[in-house]
Write a structure and sequence with these properties.
The structure holds 2 protein chains of 2 kinds. Chain A is built from 21 helices and 21 strands. A 6-stranded mixed beta sheet of chain A has the order 7-8-9-3-10-11, with helices on both faces. Chain A has a 6-stranded mixed beta sheet with strand order 17-18-19-14-20-21, with helices on both faces. In chain A, strands 1, 2, 4, 5 and 6 form a 5-stranded antiparallel beta sheet that branches. In chain A, a hairpin with a 2-residue loop joins strand 15 and strand 16. The two termini of chain A are 26 Å apart. By secondary structure, chain B is mostly helical. Chain B has one domain: MetI-like fold. Chain B contains 11 helices and no strands. The chains are: A alpha/beta, B mainly alpha. The interface between A and B is medium-sized, with 27 and 17 residues.
Amino acid sequence: MLVATDNNNAMLSVRNLSISVGTAGKRVVDELNFDLASGDMLALVGESGSGKTMAARSILGLLPAPLVTTPESTIRFSGHDLTRLAPQTLRAIRGAEIGMVFQEPMVSLNPAITIGEQMAEGLRLHRRMSRAEINDRSLAMLERIRIKDPGKCLAAYPHEFSGGMRQRIMLASVMLLKPRLLIADEPTTALDTLVQRDVLDLMVELTRENGTAVLLISHDLGMVSHYVRDVVVMREGKAVEQGNSSEVLHAPRHDYTKRLVDALPKRSTGGSRAASSGETLVEISNVVIDYPGRRRLFVRTEPKRAVDGVDLTIRRGETLALVGASGSGKTTLGRAIVGLVKPSSGTISFLGKAIAGDRSAEAHRQRRDMQIVFQDPYSSLDPRQRIADIVAEPLRLDTGMDSRKRTTRVGEIFEEVGLTPELLQRFPHQLSGGQRQRVAIARAIARRPAFVVADEPVSALDMTVQKQVLLLIRSLQERYGFACLFVSHDLGAVEQVADRVAVMQDGRIVEIGDRDQVFDHPRHPYTRSLLDAAMLIDRRFNDGAVSRRAAVQ
Amino acid sequence: MIARALRRPGLKFNMLFGVIVTGALIVLAVAGPWIAPYDPLKLDLPARLSGPSAVHLLGADEFGRDVLSRLAGGARTSAWIAFATVIFALVIGIVFGVLAGFLRGWVDRLIMMVNDAFLAFPGLLLALGLMAVIGASREGIILALGLAYMPIVVRVVRAAVMSIREREYVEASRVMGNSEFITMGRHVLPNCVAPIIVLATTMFGWIILSESALSFLGLGVPPPAPSWGNMLSTARPYISQAPHLIILPGLCISITLLGINMLGDALRDWLDPKM
């Protein structure tokens, strides 16, 4: 492990930082050391529970209740030890000297206050400025981040903007005070690939202009290596490896870092499986799905077209990935196939029979042959049921099964998805995210369906867990031969499981083809921009990342 | 599960207090006539308005009836009325609330239209009107107060159902092939339990108070039968001579409400697998 040397021109210097639960409890951060020079960038990388967020929060003195820094910790920031400052002195530093951008743009802006008010808040608090001056500064900043019609934006409320826009606004309002240090806690994790890159580029630009140092917190080693030179890899509160990001990526020394690098998306070997041979399982033709407009006092607003004339066939046993940015209609299409959304026109047929909108018992029975795995394993399992009951539920519909047979079958499925039997009697909240997603998969395949829709099944999971779940899906598919529609914005994940890829933009499919062909020779410009933004490591790391880092430095 | 719940320090007290008070209320309501030293209707005119003494442990009221015996008898009336009213309001409210929240569309619009019309009337006024038609009797009070409180239950249940029906586990149940009815019973309703319990225990308190308000207006439990509410209202003219006649039933009402609310809190946490 590289021990940070004492660096006199370091603006932020963290020594022996430990954070414990209560004064004597378990340590969530253990003996962390790093330096950050003025204008530099450093990333703390780790999975959930590694303590990276708590380490960053302790710099601002924002640790949640039972957590405290231990007495031997020091956080030196331009001459002060932040762990020993009085609360009011620390308040003068927060915002003015150290700014912070949070992960979830949907909740980090106050929905009841206009954008202008929120941007002005920091300036009013820390700088003596007149109202007009604040207004001018805010306008200039919004112009700077290329927001259309900045005047209107100041008077608007957060809900009028998309996630990416909100994150830009958040960034702008923090950078308005020209802080010397910006802490960005997973600033783009909640955003989709294209927007993610926009926001990160903007962050680099703004901080570069003002000479602001950045402490970036992320779980995504691949993304980090594109932007940041120095990384600290954390696991269970300890820094397991620190150093130059491309060295860490290419020659990881610690076992855990090796696993992390190994989990980065790589193309599954063997290429796409022979796909053309299978019989047609699902056929979608000319499907249009409209969401009805909101009802105002007297009139309805225009309906929103989510899916606009899509044709698609899915063959037995293959994995078709449906890729696109958020709002492209990919999730809606997946939900329409399993019958959760009714198409406005067009037909969806399963094994040659039209099923869309058909409420007959026959269609109902056929629909049981297709299942869905949702994105968020936290909300897709009933919190009041035990795991055993959740997995057994689809089997209850099978009249030929008594409760003993069901129990045996649940045990089998449980083993297949790689879970230990003692979890069966637990409740969903007692399981980790990866375990829950395995339970959701177990529930979906319990009746051995012919077709499974996987709606962003790994995007809520940690990198190493993502990899395991993707491997699980692929191996279950090999065993049971079900076809899968893999809906995702994450090209890294898609590359690992898909046989064919369909790219969706604004409700239309713009490109479809075999995985290797789409990834290596994209034809549509939208596919190209998606691929470019995805920052896939093994392809473009050496030239692309280095040149991007060179461009920003 | 109980052992786990009892290990939580805050909860332990809540649960203990709630269980003791509610238990005491139930014992009083069931075994009151055997526990009480006198018949609650028996007059002892020389002792009227007297304070606590060896003969009348908690004193006697304006007709010389034993206060302790009347409190015990009142527990029976009040607890029975409140309990029956809560159940009545809950059953009707949950049925309509779930229908409205789950089916939406015209069913929802119709139910909510009627419900809002009910809500637009002050609850007590509505009960008063109904009582005037039905006449003052225990069953009348239960019916009137039940209907007066039902719209709140409908609102709360509908809101809970509407938020739960959008969860992914509800959709998963549909995709699985479960009928709407099973989905509702197995996944939606059990997850609405927390707000319903909180509402039910709060309502219990409101109803005891409303019943005393009705008694006060002469439409409650008809005298001479005792209820905490009518004891409170009939004692009003004697407030300066015999304050215990007001204080004691008032205290009974307050402690009962506190106990039942604490029990409700404890019950809600206990039923939540996450706690």
